[in-house]
Write a structure and sequence with these properties.
By secondary structure, the chain is an alpha/beta fold. The chain has 3 domains: 2-83, no CATH class; 94-142 and 310-346, no CATH class; 149-302, Nucleotidyltransferase, domain 5 (2-Layer Sandwich). It contains 12 helices and 7 strands. The strands form 2 sheets. It has a 5-stranded mixed sheet, with helices on both faces. Strand 6 and strand 7 (339-346) form a beta hairpin.
Length: 349
């Protein structure tokens, strides 16, 4: 733009001299037979715009006429595609957009599905995850399902009667390695039991199962990997609980995909943001996250739903993008504000 203003202000003699000077440089460029590089989009657009003010056919030196015509046709098609585009869905109301951004800012580990589920289950606002995604700066890549269809089918058909368990590692501020035991019910995604130890043994693990399973528990199967902690004697003792042990194949973490996913969730949404001071501190952190996971965290695989849903259902508003009249949004921090649980509260009269 500054170069164009300069051309309009300088005298005709200076303009002719500069034009000849530039042409001499182009002639020298052609004599050396230097290979021209591909023109940038901004260069193409500026040349197309300038060509409207003079006979460009005589001014082409490096660019071939058919190339320049192709640029013009491409720009013409792009212009009409932009002008003929169909209008999309209307944007969300301003207060809802601000609420979505507030949730995303306050909960960095949440993706579009999690925020959409939170709005639907807790606040009665029905927004698709794709719509939520438009207002987020960064979205998480979507994962893939387990490729072993036969095993996945078995797990789905018996999910309510299957418990999966595993260990995960956490390091304290003093570089001490601790082990977190996790057991979950696959059907409801509910975490049944967790505990922390620095020395996991078969005897300690058996005690965790005693605390996990009541005398009249409804479960039929227990999935665990081939870690040496799950010894043959431990599996034999588990039969006394009325459980059939299903050991995963060697180097097949997808066979215990639900528990692996749970451990990944605990890491991504909890332990990756905190440094436990000691064993007691880690036990408290995990315990608080388990309560949030079971009673306040929406799960897309459940419909969306919550493993231990509240008794009262959230009433829907008059419009899918509006709150119920006379209600306001309240939030409760979890783990010092690492996450938040949202709910509707009636406004004071």
């Amino acid at each position: 733009m500054l170069a164009l203003l300069r051309l309009l202000l300088i005298g005709r003699a200076a303009l002719v001299a500069e034009n000849l000077f530039l042409r001499k440089q182009l002639a020298l460029f052609q004599e050396r037979k230097a290979r021209p590089r591909k023109a940038a989009a901004s260069t193409r657009l500026s040349m197309i715009a300038l060509a409207r003010f003079f006979d460009w056919r005589e001014a082409l030196v490096i660019v071939k006429p058919e190339t320049f015509i192709g640029w013009h046709r491409t720009a013409f098609r792009a212009f009409w595609r932009w002008k003929s585009r169909k209008p999309g869905r209307p944007p969300l109301p301003k207060d809802l957009r601000e609420l979505v951004r507030e949730m995303a800012a306050a909960n960095p580990a949440w993706g579009e599905e999690r925020i959409a589920d939170e709005l639907s289950l807790k606040l009665g606002i029905r927004v698709s995850p794709r719509t939520v995604g438009k207002y987020l700066d960064k979205l998480r890549p979507r994962g893939r399902r387990a490729s072993n269809q036969r095993w996945a089918t078995f797990v789905r058909n018996h999910a309510k009667g299957i418990v999966a368990c595993d260990f995960m590692v956490s390091v304290t501020a003093s570089m001490r390695v601790l082990y977190v035991f996790v057991a979950m019910e696959i059907g409801s995604r509910r975490i049944l039991h967790t505990n922390v130890t620095a020395h996991p043994t078969a005897e300690w693990t058996l005690q965790q199962f005693r605390e996990c399973f009541a005398y009249d528990h409804p479960y039929l199967y227990l999935i665990h990997d081939r870690d040496s902690i799950f010894s043959a004697s431990l599996d034999s003792d588990l039969k006394g609980f009325g459980l059939r042990v299903l050991k995963t194949p060697v180097r097949a973490p997808k066979a215990n995909a639900y528990c692996e996913r749970l451990i990944g969730t605990i890491r991504r949404e909890c332990l990756d943001f905190l440094i436990p001071l000691n064993e007691r501190h880690l036990r408290r952190i995990v315990g608080e996250f388990v309560i949030h996971y079971n009673r306040g965290r929406p799960h897309s695989a459940l419909g969306p739903g919550i493993p231990e849903p509240p008794q009262a259902k959230v009433p829907a508003g008059p419009h899918r993008h509006e709150l119920l009249a006379g209600c306001r949004v309240e939030s409760t921090p979890v783990l010092g504000g690492l996450h938040h649980e949202y709910r509707l509260e009636k406004e004071a009269a």
